[in-house]
Design brief:
- There is one protein chain.
- This protein is of the alpha+beta class and 557 residues long.
- Among the domains are: 47 residues, no CATH class; 50 residues, no CATH class; 69 residues, no CATH class.
- Helix content is 32%, strand content 17%.
- The protein is built from 12 helices and 19 strands.
- Helix 3 crosses helix 5 and helix 10 runs antiparallel to helix 11.
- The protein is flat.
C-alpha cells in the first residue's frame, strides 16, 4: 500500500509516468526513452512484455527498447519530430497576438461612440490596463510557452502572480501539467496545487503553491524523489525566502503576541472570490484516462498515439546514418603500405582515412600496383529510407490532424517546381481552431481575475473587478502568406466584391476596430474619392459628378 506521504499521490503517479514519456520525446531525452522502453520502469510483465499499470500499455519498442551489449557501438540517432510538432502547435495558436477586449455595449451608435459623449470613441474603463497585462510581450511569451507545454503534456496552467519589487502590475506565468495536482467538479477546475522542485545534494525540496478561490498558500517541503516530506521554514532556501514577504502585518503582529500561532505556511488572500489560475487542455478527450476519475479531465497530448511512429522514424533515420557511415569508400592494400608506430609497436588504424585495411602480403613481384588495391563501396539507400520516413510522417499527420505540408511532406505525391508549390495548411488550421475553442474561456476568466487582483495590489492604475467577461479572439489565419493574401484582396477589389474597410481589416488581422477606422480615414484622406467608372464618365460639367445617369434614373420626357 502506498504511503500517505508518497509524492505524487495516486492516481497522479500514473499521469506523471505518462508525462515523463511524452516529455522525453518532446525534449529528445534518449536516455530516458532507452530506460522506459527497455522495461526498467515497468510495474509488471505479461508474456515477457513489460507493461506499466495497465493504462499506458506495452513499453517495449523495437528500436529504443532493444537491449544493447555494453561493448557494442550501435548507431542510434534521434529526429526532433515530436519537438517540432509541439513548437508548431504553440506557433499556430499563440504565434500572433490574441485580442482580449471588452465588447462595445449595444446602445452605442454605429460609429462606436457614446451618444452622451459624441466626440469621443467608447472604450471600456479597464481596457487600457487589461492591455498592459494581457497584451504585453512578457505575457505573449508565456502564452507561447504554455502552448508548447500543452501540446507536449496534454494541458497547461496559467497563474496570476505579482511582486511589487519586480513589476508594477500583475504578471501571467505558465505551469506545466507535470507540476500540478488539480481538483475538478463537473469538469470545472475548483482547486489546484502547483509545485516547483529544488534539489540540494540528496534532498528534494518542493515549494507547493495551493490555489483555492480567493486564497493562495505557499509551503516548502523537504523530502526525497518519491516522498513529499515535512514542512520546513520557507526561508530554508534562498530561492523561496521572499515568500515570507507576502505575510500580512496582522499575521506578523499576532506571531509576536502569540508565538504558538506562527505557521510555516504562507497564506495570501487575493481579495477576489475566484481561482487565480486556469487550466487549458490541449485537446479532449484523453483516450487513455477517460474512465479514470480526475484524470479524465486532463487534456490529450499531441504525442499520444504516435509514440510507435516516432520510434520507427528514429530507427529509419539511424539506419540511413549507418548507411552513410558504411558508404564511405574504402581501399584494401598490403599491410606494408600502412604507417606503423615503430618496430614491435604494430600499426595504427584511422577509420576516417581513405586507406586503412591491411593484409599480411607484399603482393606478387610481377603483380602491378593496381592489382594490389581493392575498393569497397557500399550503397547509401537514401531514397528507400526517405520513403519510409515520409510514410511514417503521413501516418503521424493522419493521427494528429496536422497538415502534411507542416510536417515537410508534399500532400500531392507528385514532384512540383518551386513556382508550382501551393502548400495546403488547412488541416493544421482546423486543429488550431479546435485548440482555440478550449483556450478562449480560460483566457477570458484569467483576464477577468488578473485585472481584479491588479486593482487590489496596484490601486489607482485601472484594474478592478468587472462582472462581464472580455471577448477573446484569435486571428482568423495564423500564418497566411502575405503575398497570397494581397493577391486575393486585389482580386476581390477588382471584382468590386470588397470594401475599403474590409481590405484594411484583412490586411491587418491583428488590428482592433478603432485602428481599422483610423486607417480607413487616413486612406480616404490620402487617396481621396475613387476615380469614376470610365464606362459611364462623360466629363460633362453640368452633371454633379460628370457621369451619365443610370438607366432607371434617366429623366422622363
Amino acid at each position: 500500500m502506498a504511503s500517505a506521504d508518497e509524492f505524487p499521490p495516486a492516481p497522479f503517479d500514473i499521469a506523471l509516468d505518462r508525462f515523463r514519456e511524452h516529455e522525453a520525446w518532446w525534449t529528445g531525452d534518449t536516455l530516458t526513452l532507452q530506460s522506459m522502453y527497455s522495461g526498467e520502469v515497468a510495474t509488471h510483465t505479461h508474456n515477457g512484455v513489460p507493461y506499466r499499470g495497465g493504462l499506458v500499455g506495452s513499453l517495449s519498442k523495437a528500436f529504443w527498447g532493444a537491449p544493447i551489449v555494453a561493448t557494442e557501438k550501435r548507431m542510434k540517432m534521434h529526429v526532433d519530430l515530436a519537438g517540432g510538432i509541439c513548437r508548431l502547435s504553440a506557433t499556430l495558436l499563440f504565434g500572433e497576438q490574441v485580442k482580449i477586449r471588452y465588447p462595445k455595449p449595444p446602445e452605442l451608435d454605429a460609429a462606436g461612440k457614446d451618444p452622451s459623449k459624441p466626440t469621443k470613441k467608447w472604450e471600456h474603463e479597464g481596457q487600457a490596463r487589461l492591455d498592459e497585462i494581457m497584451s504585453s510581450d512578457e505575457t505573449r511569451a508565456q502564452l507561447l510557452q504554455a502552448g508548447e507545454l500543452a501540446a507536449a503534456l496534454g494541458g497547461t496552467y496559467l497563474s496570476v502572480t505579482w511582486n511589487e519589487r519586480l513589476a508594477d502590475r500583475v504578471r501571467i506565468r505558465a505551469y506545466a501539467a507535470d507540476c500540478a495536482l488539480p481538483e475538478f467538479q463537473d469538469g470545472i477546475l475548483t482547486a489546484v496545487t502547483l509545485w516547483t522542485e529544488y534539489r540540494v545534494e540528496q534532498a528534494v525540496y518542493r515549494l507547493l503553491e495551493r490555489h483555492d478561490p480567493g486564497m493562495i498558500s505557499y509551503s516548502l517541503h523537504k523530502g526525497s524523489e518519491k516522498v513529499l516530506g515535512p514542512v520546513v521554514p520557507i526561508n530554508s532556501l534562498d530561492a523561496t525566502a521572499h515568500y515570507n514577504g507576502l505575510r500580512s502585518q496582522a499575521e506578523l503582529d499576532l506571531a509576536i503576541a502569540e508565538p504558538g500561532s506562527w505557521s510555516e505556511t504562507v497564506t495570501v488572500s487575493t481579495g477576489v472570490p475566484k481561482l487565480a489560475v486556469v487550466y487549458i487542455p490541449n485537446r479532449m478527450p484523453n483516450k487513455d484516462w477517460r474512465k479514470q476519475g480526475v484524470l479524465a479531465n486532463l487534456g490529450r497530448s499531441d504525442l499520444a498515439g504516435i509514440e510507435d511512429e516516432l520510434d520507427k522514424v528514429d530507427q529509419a533515420w539511424s539506419a540511413l546514418m549507418r548507411d552513410v557511415a558504411l558508404g564511405q569508400g574504402r581501399l584494401t592494400v598490403p599491410e606494408s603500405w600502412l604507417e606503423t608506430a615503430g618496430r614491435g609497436e604494430g600499426g595504427t588504424v584511422d577509420l576516417d582515412r581513405e586507406v586503412y585495411v591491411g593484409v599480411n602480403a607484399l603482393g606478387k613481384a610481377d603483380e602491378q600496383m593496381s592489382g594490389q588495391i581493392h575498393e569497397s563501396q557500399f550503397d547509401i539507400r537514401d531514397e528507400e529510407f526517405g520513403n519510409v520516413i515520409e510514410g511514417l510522417k503521413r501516418e503521424i499527420a493522419w493521427t494528429t490532424g496536422y497538415s502534411l505540408a507542416h510536417l515537410g511532406v508534399d500532400g500531392s505525391g507528385t514532384m512540383k517546381t518551386a513556382t508550382e508549390v501551393d502548400a495546403d495548411y488547412s488541416d493544421s488550421e482546423r486543429v488550431r481552431d479546435e485548440k482555440a475553442m478550449y483556450a478562449k474561456p480560460a483566457l477570458a476568466q484569467l483576464a477577468q481575475v488578473a485585472l481584479a487582483i491588479d486593482g487590489i495590489v496596484f490601486p489607482g492604475k485601472g484594474g478592478a473587478w468587472f462582472e462581464e467577461l472580455p471577448d477573446v479572439d484569435f486571428p482568423p489565419v495564423s500564418q497566411e502568406d502575405m503575398e497570397k493574401a494581397a493577391r486575393i484582396i486585389q482580386s476581390l477589389f477588382l471584382s468590386e466584391s470588397i470594401s475599403r474597410r474590409e481590405r484594411v481589416r484583412r490586411s491587418n488581422p491583428d488590428w482592433d476596430e478603432d485602428q481599422v477606422d483610423d486607417e480607413v480615414d487616413a486612406l480616404s484622406e490620402e487617396f481621396g474619392a475613387q476615380a469614376p467608372d470610365p464606362t459611364t464618365f462623360t466629363g460633362d460639367p453640368t452633371t454633379p459628378d460628370g457621369t451619365r445617369p443610370k438607366p432607371d434614373e434617366e429623366p422622363k420626357p
